[in-house]
Amino acid sequence: MSGLWPLVRAAPRHALSRAAGRLGRCPAPRWILTPVLAAYARAYGADLGEAERPIGAYATFLDFFTRRLKPGARPLPEDPRAIASPADGRVQAAGRIHAGTLLQAKAVRYRVADLLGDAGAAAALAGGEYLVVYLAPGDYHRFHWPLDGTFDVLIHLPGDLWPVNERAVDAVPGLFARNERVVLLGRTAHGAPFAFVAIGALNVGSIRLAVAPVRTNRVECGRPRRRRLTGARGRRGDELGWFEFGSSLALLLGPGAGTLLPFAAGARLRAGQPVGVQETGISTAALPPSASST
């Protein structure tokens, strides 16, 4: 991407991303689309054997890109205390929230308050831990609840649409706090604070949530929008949303929410894989029955 980076910097990133979204939604004859999808899967290493439907059953590129997997393809940990990876992907950064900041790359840090668009929520997470996961083009692009809990607040923060791959993370200071993103602020089943952030990127047609309607990558820039959520409860492994192209996710755990495993940058994750352990004393009596895991 090094040779293309000047073009990326100069490009109309929002317009290109909206165009990619529209193109991905265009139906195509099966005799054209199926070979294109097969070539895409080969190029990016997508595992067609895991897909819920055969490759010829998808009507659009986006239909394939946001595909569900066969039941049981991403089993959950047997230990009910385990925190599950919310998505397939690679670790971009992980560690402890230090002085209200997260590590982006090498010695580059950015503020939690800027990422969340909420200084109070950032303060509640101080001293906790975080995990940032990059979903590459060939990955499964639905994401899931990492633990049992409730989301109380949704914040939509319009912003730029830089790529979120390794080259961009190294080149754009504060990248994750600059790109458009959807922030979910919530509580674990035993009341500890946590946050989940879906981060937009170049060519992401849209970010979708299962817990609330949200419209991203729109022509109008708009201001940050915040709203209370009611009934946004879920169990570990329930579907939380999906990207309409590759991007990144951030999971932030406040004090008392749990401890994450020590992951090095570049470590490969699969949705449902154990990535940490919740604090003891979990009570799930008030939560609804769990949906089937993907």
Structural class given helices, strands, pairing? alpha+beta
Count helical runs.
8
The total count of strands amounts to 17
> How many angstroms separate the termini?
33 Å
Share of helical residues: 10-25%
Query: What is the top-level CATH class of the largest domain?
Result: Mainly Beta
Keywords:
three-stranded antiparallel beta sheet, Glucose Permease (Domain IIA), 294 residues, alpha+beta, nine-stranded antiparallel beta sheet, 8 helices, 28% strand, single chain, globular, 2 domains
Provide a descriptive summary of the structure in words:
This protein has two domains: 2-65, no CATH class; 82-278, Glucose Permease (Domain IIA), CATH 2.70.70. 20% of the residues lie in helices and 28% in strands. It contains eight helices and 17 strands. Strands 2, 5, 7, 8, 9, 11, 12, 14 and 16 form a nine-stranded antiparallel sheet that branches. A three-stranded antiparallel sheet has the order 1-17-15, with no helix packed on it. The longest helix has 15 residues, at 30-44. The chain is globular and about 55 Å long.
What is shown here, in short?
By secondary structure, the chain is α+β, with helices and mostly antiparallel strands. The protein has helices spanning 5-10, 13-25, 30-44, 61-65, 112-116, 119-124, 166-171, 175-178, and strands spanning 82-84, 89-96, 101-105, 108-111, 129-134, 142-144, 149-157, 181-188, 193-199, 207-209, 225-228, 233-234, 239-243, 248-253, 258-260, 268-269, 274-278. 20% of the residues lie in helices and 28% in strands.
